[in-house]
Amino acid sequence: MFSRRLRWPYPPNRLSRLLDEKRARGAALLDLTESNPTRAGLPYPAEAIAAALADPGVAIYEPTPRGLASARAAVAADSAARGRPVDPERIVLTASTSEAYAILFKLLGDPGDAVLVPRPSYPLFDYLAALEGLRVATYALTYNGRWSIDLESLERAFDSSVTAPRAVVLVNPNNPTGSALRRSELERLRDLCGRRGAALIADEVFFDFLDPQAVERGARSGDPIVSSLSGGSAARGGAPGPGRDALTFVLGGLSKACGMPQMKLGWIMVDGTDGTVREALERLDLIADTYLSVGTPVMRAAGRLFEIGAGIRSAIIRRIEANLRALKDRTGAGSSCGVLDRDGGWYAVLQVPAIGPEEELVLALLAEDDVLIHPGYFFDFTREAYLVLSLLPETAAFEEALGRILTRVDRR
Fold it and tell me: Pick from 393, 253, 252, 312: which is nearest to 48 by CA?
């Protein structure tokens, strides 16, 4: 009697079962999987956030498919202030980035169609696509001193009659690799999507956390990290042309940009040729009007939340920088582990000697060292052995957990 979109039930894996047991016993865990900034010991101006939500206008319900004009203007103003201009009329508000994906998958695909997603990447795509009746196909990210898109695997996916995609998902910078889009990659992506009639979905939730040093290295290399895909072709670099100006949807949200996952406000920015954008927005209006999921309080407060979020974002950046320094210091010369090069985001990838399965290592770290960490296979790394570390935890806890990880690795 239940849907077959997902495999029901999903039994817990060994790591989650052990984690439940440890928590039930009250173990003091060092959690390097933490992705919730509100639980990372960062300063949050609770009174200012509460005051921002105290707008008397919340008593009035104004159902608007794309979201309140004032909130869309606030999103556009914040984007423009950081060099990424966008027309508020081309913005659709959502309750989250996950909902934005669900809406776009409804817009772009029919049951059984494929969407292309990067590998490695966050495993949520499998569930989001399946819940809309779509299939997931992958294109590879490869590492050779730095992460880059395997453009040949992307071409093969387009040429396959089985996986020919309706959309290509790009996470910029990627989670967990931290890799950002380069100009040469953007040109190939725009060309492919434009010629093959596929949309480009650019998830830029971590875009505000690019590493300035990585941006500088990219500029020196002659293949720079591109600016946000919002704001039109000129803002992205390169002039539009036949087959190149693909329909593009840029995703963002308060969850990452302002460190406010509790506020539940995301957005879709639509870019492309005027006629295609107009048709996409008309269809998005119908889908969004069917749900009207974004709450009035957060839309009324959007402008003030962006102002407050700037301070939270700065605190997150300082935390990331401190933990990244600690990580590089501990894995420098003489260490058997190495940190993979990254361009930004909230995570780092630690390569450890592949002398045993990742799963056994992370289970031992949790069982014997009270350290919770994600193995690389969780994110579909194609080989071992990698550990994915959140850079959000308090630095003292991060350094303690890192010490326990390195000690355990050295004992293997």
Answer: 312
What are the Cα distances from residue 236, in Å, to 85, 171, 211, 220?
Answer: 11, 15, 18, 18
pTM of the model: 0.94
Do 86 and 96 contact (CB within 8 A), yes or no?
Answer: no
What pLDDT, in 10s, does the model give residues 268-277? 999 999 999 9
Looking up tokens 């495993």 gives 123
Coil, helix or strand at residue 270: strand
Coil/strand/helix, residue 30: strand
Helical H segments across 4-150, by residue range: 14-24, 46-52, 69-81, 97-108, 124-131
d(C-alpha 164, C-alpha 176), whole Å: 26
Side chain identity, residue 238: G
Over residues 232-277, the pLDDT tens digits come to 543 444 444 444 579 999 999 999 999 999 999 999 999 999 999 9
In this structure, whether the domain defined by 14-43+314-411 belongs to CATH 3.40.190.10 is answered with no
> Inter-axis angle of helices 358-369 and 14-24, to 10 degrees?
0
User: What's the CA gap between 339 and 329, in Å, rounded?
Assistant: 10
Q: What six digits make up the tokens of 375?
A: 């193995």
Pairing of strands 147-149, 386-390: unpaired
How far is residue 135's CA from residue 165's CA, in Å, rounded to a whole number?
Answer: 9
The topology under which CATH files domain 46-308 is Aspartate Aminotransferase; domain 2 (3.40.640)
Which residue, chain included where needed, has tokens 């193995």? 375
Residue boundaries of the structural domains of the chain: 14-43+314-411, 46-308
User: What would the 3-class secondary structure string for 123-175 be?
Assistant: CHHHHHHHHCCCEEEEEEEEECCCEEECHHHHHHHHHCCCCCEEEEEEECCCC
Q: By CB neighbour count within 10 A (0-12 exposed, 13-18 middle, 19+ buried), where does 332 fall?
A: exposed
Rounded distance, CA 360 to CA 352, Å? 13
pLDDT tens digits, residue range 339-351? 999 999 999 999 9
Here the tokens at position 176 are 């967990």
